[in-house]
Amino acid sequence: MTKAIRLVIFDLDGTLVDSSVDITNALNYALGPFGFKKMTAGETIGLVGEGLSRLIEKVVGNEKAAIIPQVQDRFIRYYSEHLADFTVPYNGVRETLQRLGDIKKAVISNKRESLSKNLLEKLRLASFFDIILGSDSVVHKKPSPEPVLKVLDALGVRPEETVIVGDSGYDIDAGKAASVKTIAVSYGFRDRKFLGSADRIIDSIEELIPILLEMNSDA
Predict the structure, then answer these.
(1) pTM for the full predicted model
(2) What are the catalytic residues?
């Protein structure tokens, strides 16, 4: 017998929201004075997931590492003012969060906590969540289990009562390291072929509800 699911933890970018255009616009603004070619949203989503610092490091490279602090400052300044110009929840997200009802809900993002909270506020999604953590909410961000364990502790929920939902290996690895069930979404920023280690893969967030009902019926 398994334990009934009492908590669902969500990744943010690529899972709850498509933020690819706003992140790309901020990145292109940040890189503008330094002679880099403009990036497309398709190019950007292949690099996101490990947080802002790693995103900029990957784009700038070792040879121009000295400009990273400037690029990062420009990115944050621009992105903070343009968080939701084009960012929208994926289809079915709002309805799924509503249908989860009394099940506890959390967000763990590798985006900074303040940016994560502000974005969810702007999209009128923040009120669904009991706790929202970002990359700077803990010492070690995903794929470390630390943010997952922090959520479990804060909400008084056990690992066997928890599912994490995300679009990348960082989410899956963090969940597995914390001994929680893992569900990957195939519609986000990572190709399905990189999600095979998840316990389940879904093609729409709306598929989450029947999976949770199935898990709870087995409990």
Answers:
(1) 0.94
(2) 11
